[in-house]
Amino acid sequence: MKSWITADKKRGIKTVHVSVYDAKAMKTLGVPAIKGRATATKVKTAIDTLWKRLTPDYLILLGGDDIVPYFVVTNPSYDPNGDDDKEVPTDNPYASSRRFELRPALLICSPTAW
Fold this sequence. Notes:
The protein is α+β, with helices and mostly antiparallel strands. It has one domain. Helices cover 26% and strands 7% of the residues. The chain has helices at residues 2-10, 23-28, 40-54, and strands spanning 71-74, 87-90. Strands 1-2 form a two-stranded antiparallel ribbon. The relative contact order is 0.12.
């Protein structure tokens, strides 16, 4: 991370590395740290708050599901005769500025129904 931050600085980019679990670092930025069990919703709320506070040019999430929990959503491609996963883990909601809301899946017709 230090090398990355140094390289960005040479290019005129101010890079901030912060863990949403680090109470001291988050307090410095005026954002509450994650407390208790991490959930995708808690982490997204912290990231969204940091985004509004820091207004960065880009954001990189580091860590797997144990660090940045995936959202579990209804699989829009579900087909019991093909893609038989009814739900899928995804980090896609982190890319949206909107609050995540789990909604029922839209009815999607398979090509064989046309």
